[in-house]
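FAQ

Q: What does a record look like?
A: Structure on top, sequence underneath. For example:
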């Protein structure tokens, strides 16, 4: 809808979809190596930050719908592919072997069902009341806020894990 508001037509929307999907390919391909190199939390945090940037990008008043849509869609690979790959791999590694598929199903239900449903209701209400620009701005700021909360929770969990490991004589961070 935002691209249409900025004067974009069917060709732009089709091009945006192609860029979006094409950006997923290298991200999915290299997700395992990135997970090994950076770990789950850093990939998730990076994805949350870039998702916030992507939403804020849409909120600007661009003179051309092309400059709004295509660069933002390049970030889709990281915000979707890397986040989902890292989270799925983390669930596979941390869940008991006989519950790994169940854990992934619960994650998928929470993310794609509850999360998307709730986000659609909130974003729809924001769109109706304030317009697309304000909706994207609110969503972008919310994602950056979520990244801060996520980071603080991670620091707390790491601190707790280190204290607990010192008590047991082993040190391991999450």
């Amino acid at each position: 809808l935002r691209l249409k508001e900025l004067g974009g037509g069917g060709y732009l929307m089709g091009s945006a979809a192609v860029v979006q999907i094409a950006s997923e390919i290298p991200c999915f391909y290299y997700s395992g190596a990135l997970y090994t190199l950076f770990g789950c939390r850093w990939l998730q945090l990076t994805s949350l930050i870039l998702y916030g940037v992507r939403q804020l990008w849409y909120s600007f008043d661009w003179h051309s719908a092309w400059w709004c849509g295509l660069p933002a869609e390049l970030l889709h690979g990281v915000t979707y592919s890397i986040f989902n790959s890292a989270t799925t791999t983390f669930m596979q590694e941390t869940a008991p072997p006989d519950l790994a598929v169940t854990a992934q199903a619960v994650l998928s239900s929470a993310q794609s069902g509850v999360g998307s449903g709730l986000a659609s209701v909130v974003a729809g209400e924001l769109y109706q009341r304030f317009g697309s620009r304000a909706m994207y701005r609110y969503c972008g700021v919310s994602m950056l806020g979520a990244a801060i909360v996520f980071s603080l929770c991670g620091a707390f969990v790491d601190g707790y894990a280190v204290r607990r490991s010192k008590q047991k004589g082993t040190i391991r961070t999450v």
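Q: Is there anything notable about this one?
A: The first helix runs from residue 2 to 5.
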